[in-house]
Give the backbone structure.
Amino acid sequence: MTVLKAVMAPRTREIAGGFREVDVYDLPGECTAEVTGIYLTGDVDQEYLAEQRPLLDAFVIRGGRVVVNGHVQRLFLDGLTKWRKLDFRNPSDLALTRVTEHPVWAGTDPRAFLYNTGTPGPVPFAELERIGVAGFYGRGCYLDLPEGARVVHTIGRTRAPIDYDYPLGAGRVLVHGGNDLAQFATADRGTARLHDQLLRWLEARDE
C-alpha cells in the first residue's frame, strides 16, 4: 500500500512520515494501482487538479481515498462543494463541535485544535484561552454537501460543517476546510495520534 502526499514543491519521491511526497504535477504518472490514498495539501494548484478530475474521480470510484485540505474553489472531484468564509468576531465563532466520531480524529479533543501559541510544551486550555490565537484550524465552512456526506466537525455558533467525508463509488473523500490537517498532529496538543490515524485511513484500513 502506498499513500501519496501531493505538494507544490520540486519533484521528489521522498518518504516523509509514511507518505511518499510527490509534486502535484506528477500525479498522473504517480497514481499507480498500488496507491490507496492521496493527501492533497492546502496550497496545491486547484486549476490543475480540475484538469485532472477524470483521473481523480476514477481513482476514488475504484476504491481509493483522498484527503482534501484548504479552501476548495475549483471542483476537482465529484461531490465537492465550494468553501465559504465564515463571519467571525471572537474564538467562540471558530470553536469546533464534533458531531460524528471518525477514525481520523479518534481519541482527540476538538478543543485541542482551536488555539495556537508560541509557548513550548503542553499548555492547559484555560491558559490557551488567555494567550492563544484562534482560527488556524479553520475559518470557513462547506454547505450543500453531497448525498451520503458525514459531517465530523462543525464550526462556531452557526454549527456550519468544516470537516466531512462522503462516499464516491467504492472509495471515500475527506474534506478539511482549513490549514493542512497533518500539521495539527503534535504531542503538545495531545493529538500526535492524528498523523498515524490519518495515514491508516488513507491506506483504507479504517472506515
The first strand starts at residue 2 and ends at 7.
